[in-house]
Amino acid sequence: xxxxxxxxxxxxxxxxxxxxxxxxxxxxxxxxxxxxxxxxxxxxxxxxxxxxxxxxxxxxxxxxxxxxxxxxxxxxxxxxxxxxxxxxxxxxxxxxxxxxxxxxxxxxxxxxxxxxxxxxxxxxxxxxxxxxxxxxxxxxxxxxxxxxxxxxxxxxxxxxxxxxxxxxxxxxxxxxxxxxxxxxxxxxxxxxxxxxxxxxxxxxxxxxxxxxxxxxxxxxxxxxxxxxxxxxxxxxxxxxxxxxxxxxxxxxxxxxxxxxxxxxxxxxxxxxxxxxxxxxxxxxxxxxxxxxxxxxxxxxxxxxxxxxxxxxxxxxxxxxxxxxxxxxxxxxxxxxxxxxxxxxxxxxxxxxxxxxxxxxxxxxxxxxxxxxxxxxxxxxxxxxxxxxxxxxxxxxxxxxxxxxxxxxxxxxxxxxxxxxxxxxxxxxxxxxxxxxxxxxxxxxxxxxxxxxxxxxxxxxxxxxxxxxxx
Length: 470
Fold this sequence. Notes:
By secondary structure, the protein is of the alpha/beta class. The protein contains 11 helices and 24 strands. Helices cover about 25% and strands about 35% of the residues. It is globular. The N and C termini lie far apart (about 50 Å).
């Protein structure tokens, strides 16, 4: 029996920076090989088709070089043999919060999960390292036929829905890190919303890294059938460690005819995390997919949510906020692929660079020649806090034919001394004046987040702004 750690065992500087002593039942050890794959498959009781899928993905991962075109040299500092690819306490996800192991419960209690669930969520999943510790959906939503489960449960219990779409939106060979995820994925959410069902309250997942030199590889698949609607929200946190941590998720969205999916992310990784994520959705006729994304923390983030507008009058949107502090690079953007007539895409990106932080926008918009009546709007705005801050914008907009409408706008600005001086004359401290300026810069996008997330977003920005002036 594992003793429950005392509260004094917890290291804490802010709401997310704490950890409990390790208590693993399953540990794949360091390094990645076919033995690692077999260990994960055996622990999770994977069916043979998943074992084959994983091993083929491992071969693809090993054969692919590190990306060079949409990447930074910091990727060279990732040493894959220095990570553990599976860690688990050995318990199945609990349906009752009271049944969750005490150390895990204390972790998520401090992050506010039970409170948020009681207030307004339709369902919650809480993942602790490689596996979900808690998974629950409200009865009224379940009675509508909505499925909300972790990926392991889904591939066992719902193969007729899970398997046809798994790995179809983002193939294993899409990039080196999607191949890595395909080889060692564990956890993540599976959601299916039946035809015509509109989930009134959000479904939410929390992803928590509690170990250093560990890789978190959740896999999320969301399917909204004809006319269905839902909002899914995720929060990502990790404490500060001395050694690097790896996060490489894959998220696939499928919006059938007339369906709507909103996917909201607030990440607050610590500055030792390599955050390398592939997210993409397919929108069928008159469907809509919206990515609403906030990226704070991490050593390096590479994330470009995409939408393939496959059906006529489909719509895709990416709204993103990124904040890079000293020692951090937020390399974010969007990919919009128009594949049908009268499709519409919208990309709005705002970045903030503090100290010696670096933010980068990379965007891809593609409209083929044979299509008609497509529209795209792309806006990229950057704010520099210090003279040493850096921002770069690399938009790639490919429009063929003459029956489309596209527009692109980009701006770079710096918080002026005059503006800070003016606010200080109104009674604000220098730090308060700087924080107010930054929140004003992102205010229109912050309104796109649910209220609870918007408040959390502004709080995190205030924390990042501390010590940034001067």
